[in-house]
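Teaching assistant's notes for section 4

Start the section by putting this record on the projector. Ask students to predict, before seeing the second block, whether MBL fold metallo-hydrolase will look compact or extended. Collect guesses on the board.
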Amino acid sequence: MELSRRSLLAVAGVSLIPTSRLLAADTLTVPSIDRLQLTVLIDSTTSVFGASITRPDIRVVPPPITADYHTAFAGQWGYSLLAKSSAVGTARTTLIDFGYTPAALLNNMALLGVAPDMVDAMVLSHGHYDHFGGLDGFLASGKVRRGTPLFVGGEEAFCERIRGTDPDGSSFGAVDRPAIRKAGIDLIVSGDPRIVAGQGFTTGRIPFVSTEHPRVPTGMLPGQNCDRRLLDPAKRDKRFVVDDAEHELGTAFHVAGRGLVVVGSCSHRGIINTVRRAQAVSGIDKVHAIVGGFHLVPPQTRDQAMETLALMQAINPDYIIPGHCSGEAFISAATAAMPQKVIRSVVGSSYFFGSA
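Reveal the predicted structure now:
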């Protein structure tokens, strides 16, 4: 694939930034896990013709055929991922985001035999409805264990959102904080990296350390459904702010002998920036897989997609599993450039990393 001069310069720039320079004071001692299974609960792509893949360092299991032909996996614009990890015989289950609607999330969980009380920890990557819309129904099931931690990257995740960047745009909803309290969830709101369920970690706030600066197509209403006093001073006194996704989190796991598996649920801060942040927080350079939405749909351009691809090739992960908002421009180009690395995200599919 021919890369543009801008993309090549971007690769050179990010390649020259050593991880040690990206380290912040809030680094973590990140646990190693033996095995990781990622299962797509919500994404846009569904299929009953998925292919199994078995390689020494990854196994892909397609969605199971439902026992009742009247039932089917629901695909929608949104994202939710279930991470099952194990270390020294101890298993943990982490739910990352909740998709767009409770009906789709609960339907797909039921078809996969996943009960809400199986979840040990939850992460909400950011305050967009296509990532928290299924949360209310998930909590209202009455089966979520009280005291289950929910990690959120900052107070602004709770602020009311507006579709588009016009202050007069239509509502895009807000997280139902009272529902979280009613369910007895342990809400952990922090922009610092945190260990999740003893086996994974959040990135904390993601700085711009590459040329990626995605535009976020939503607005935020400070003070509406969120506490102004806890917002960034530059935002707290405003009526309307175009989103910069400053509160967004990535989630990552360190698979022993393989490297980092980094989940950028929507990557409004840039998927390369998200990976770099995971490397900096953990002190681990090797990236085994990059998973999730890479936010390369409009208003991002094809040039931006190609630039991100070039930066990703410089990182050289073993596998890339793009879904949700990654965009066909990126996915098709990445598949052509790295056919053995790119695996599509399909609802109901599971991706296994680490020991068998």
